[in-house]
Here is the input.
Amino acid sequence: MISMNGSAQSLNETVSGFAVACRFLLFFITAAMTISCVSNPPRTDVTHIVKPGEDFKSISTQYTGTPDHYKAIAARSGVMKLSSIKPGDSVVIPANLVNQGAGNSSPSRAKTDTARTLAEAVAVATALGAGAGAIGCKNNKSSCAATGAGIGALTGLLAGTAVVMAKQAFVTDEERLNQEITHAKEYNKELKAHNLQLTNDVKKLTAESNSLKQRVRRGQAQADQLAAQKQKVSGLLASNQKLLTDSRTELGRQEKIYSEFKSGKIATNPETEKLMQEITVLKTNITKLDGETKKLAAVNDRLSV
Here is the structure.
């Protein structure tokens, strides 16, 4: 069984480890945005690993926006018989065809590009957050990793959106709308997952803190253990208060974008309402985060008594 002091130590290590991860993430964001803004590197061939159910036409559509380049992709890959590819095979998409063709300015192409960029940012941030939490913890590594990964993923989404906006010149309003919807959906997904993890963390911390206070009163634990527990809870509280502030800022940004779309050229586009649906979900997620953060603050206050 993990001791109260050991659990508190694990929590502190998670918060400290995540702070280190954020420094690496900041470096990643800065580098990505610098590269995006300063230069447009030349295109290179893309290697794709075939997944079950894929063929040359579907792969062509995925990377070029149209199935019409399937023969060129097959030729570049050295495949003579189009039906011979199978899951696990490598297929090469010529550099001059990547994101080219009939689908170049379509919403589907913008959505694919955006999803890929956001996924990359989230992957880096999640891995850094989870790694920092797991490496720093001597006890309960899985819980530490989950806490660090959750906040890291959300931080990565905000960072990824900044990178997307910096490097992608939108051809149409529809492209920008699709980018916003993709981002909003991903943010809501990650925030919901974080709230579930936070709910579990708060329950455990409440029980641990109450037990520790009783043990201190009975002389079964030292007062410095209580102080250490408060320090760890304060660290987690600060992280979630920052996330709450960031999420409210993100809500304001999305509401502003929605207003711009409703008053612009695509006011009647049904896709616009999909963004409003995600805004409504975000409000619900923020309310949940606010509630759990207040519970965490209450635990922190009780530790001061």
Notes: Residues 10 and 138 are 6 Å apart (CA to CA). Strands lie at 46-49, 90-93.
